[in-house]
Amino acid sequence: MEHMHKQIVSTILEIERAASERFNKGDASGYLDIYHDDITYVDPMTPGVLTDKNAVRAYFDKSYLGIQIEKAEWSNINFVVNELANTVILTYNQQNHIRSKNDGELHQVPLWNCTEVYRLTDGQWKIAHANWSFSQHPALLNSLKTLFVKLGYA
What we know:
single chain; alpha+beta
């Protein structure tokens, strides 16, 4: 069982890295290709939970800026493989670095949290749920701190 889980984790990492590399080069379809038709998707800019691949595609078409990420570093990579080995939860942090069009300098953007649920269907691993969020984003933390002070909690 442990050997099978290691193979699954290796496969999921390959799929995720390939999709991420395409996305980082400005091709959002890298992820669209591995989303289930009935995916649920959330990120900080969505108006709520998007509930199918067509909604995610429309959101990407409307909102995705095609920013090229020059350097993406992953950390805290974790997997949970269910007992039947047909569902995997992948979590990691991603630190992106983008080169400015204005000054040519490489800039670090806020750290991302990623949680994705992969589901094995008809012999293919596809993402059934994706949630992207900022990890300890300074502006958000300051905003919350200000709100808590205003409400008398801090």
